[in-house]
Model the fold of this input.
Amino acid sequence: MERAMDRDINTPEIGDELRREAAVWFERIHSDDVSTEELAEWQRWVATSPAHQRAFKDLEDFWRIAEKLEEPAWPTSFELDVDTYDASTPIEAWRQRPRPQARRDRRYLHWPALAAAFVGAAACVAAYLFVFRGFGGSTEVAVFQTASREHREVVLKDGSQLLLGAKTSISINFSDEARNVVVDSGEAYFDVAKDKARPFIVRAGTGTITATGTAFNVEYVEGRVDVIVSEGSVEVLDINLPASSDSAGQEGAGPMAPAPQPTRVEAGQRFVYGATTVSEVKAVDTARVLAARKGRLEYLGEPLKFVVADVGRYTDRQLVITDPAIEEMLYTGVFLESEADDWLASLPDTYPQVEVVRLGDKRVVLQLRALPAGAPHVE
Amino acid sequence: MSEREKYPRSPPPEAGAATQETGTGPGRAGDTGKGAYDDEDRREVISRLFNEHNQSLLRFLVTKLSSEQEARDVAQEAYVRMLNLDTPEVVSHSRAYLFKIAANLAIDRLRSRTVENRVFEFEFFEDLPKDADPAHGLAAAEQVEFLKRCIRELPPKCRQAFLLRRIEGMSSSEISKILRVPERTVRHYIVEAIVYCQRRLTAEVEKGAIGNGAGHGP
Done:
């Protein structure tokens, strides 16, 4: 392979027009839907003259140099909003247009913070499912995972139905004594089949939720477990509260021993626990639970941190909040999971101080907008 | 390494053959009435293709894959597919067809890349300059630095389109959905961004402000 750079750049005959022609071909032949005819045409164009050949090769070299760009200056949403350039004129001309004297508000991201946030977040969300059955009788061991935007309905051997939200991972371990489920992350709705002899125990975060014949939703994101009961009742025990000595490392083998002060949560109630949350039972509109099953997300005065965590499960992008002030902003609203991306894009409409910055197709950063002194420039 | 590249003016491929699938059967000699002659003929054509267009094909693939190793793998596979094609007519307009097969293979490969692969790719590329002239490496770094500046000068949407294509490998139709502009505009953005940056960079190199990387050529 020749080196990327061995070109003769001192060739006066390669002007902008030829460069543009080469770039048009380049863009065309590297589109996924390029046809063989177009490739043949391109090859004929290249063969027309040595200048064409060189112009194209220069372009390939340029493309390789551009590959090494690190941390390029991605435009902010503000810049994108006010941009009126439509590529009908060369960029030179656009740059020479008259413009107001206000300096462009160019803010750069706080890279160290971002870098730290991204570390360890390279998890690849492949949906897979492996179920080991045939231990006979009532035993069942399985792991279920869903990808971003994927919902999955699962019917377990005992007749219980699970509806898994996106980016959710749960494992189940059913024995003759108990039905144990661990929510590793994400959200699941449980419609539990009655079986008095085998309690249905869901572990999430630092606590357990025990039910017999009940329907309830468990969401475990950002270290917070959110339990909403729509039918019957459950008992929640958070080991971070009045501690029960043996429940901490218990991998769900055997039924929960009667623990001190479990919290009873009835239909129509919500109970939230987690390291940084004050746990209390509250009345809630269980329509929210049912809404979630229909692909709707509903919030009433919810910290943005948790809303964004939910939204993050319905988009392929990684969402990063750079400022704690944003995390604590309260959100009230309803939207469809399928509209997660639109919701993100429209966030600055609701919170003008929040700026949504896309970094390629992998990441979206929510940051506080630095309000420029004086009016921002308008073209 | 031969820099000589011929682009014989062959007629455009026939539409029928051009649109067929890339992965066809083994197509051994004897499958058709013409037998061994075709097979040999085909080998000869493909070996000619290799000699005349391999560099061009590799550049084409490196552009797509950002990896010389993978470009070579894909090129090799493309030649093998050409050899095994059922329709001997393909050899008569083989050049564009070879690129089409290679493009499809490269796209498949890109789609199957996982996040981990991508990280690996990146590390792999850190090693690349070692077979190059050190002056070249330095010049390249200067050029990248200057290019960063050029990119800041681009209009925002145009810049976004260029970066999404170059850094994230997104297609024009994907970018069009993100920027909410017609796909045609996205293509224009990318073309204008290339023209602008390339010209700025070339001018800078000609001015002698940064090395051209072609220092001690043969």
Observations:
- The CA atoms of residues 61 and 324 of chain A lie 43 Å apart.
- The first strand of chain A starts at residue 129 and ends at 132.
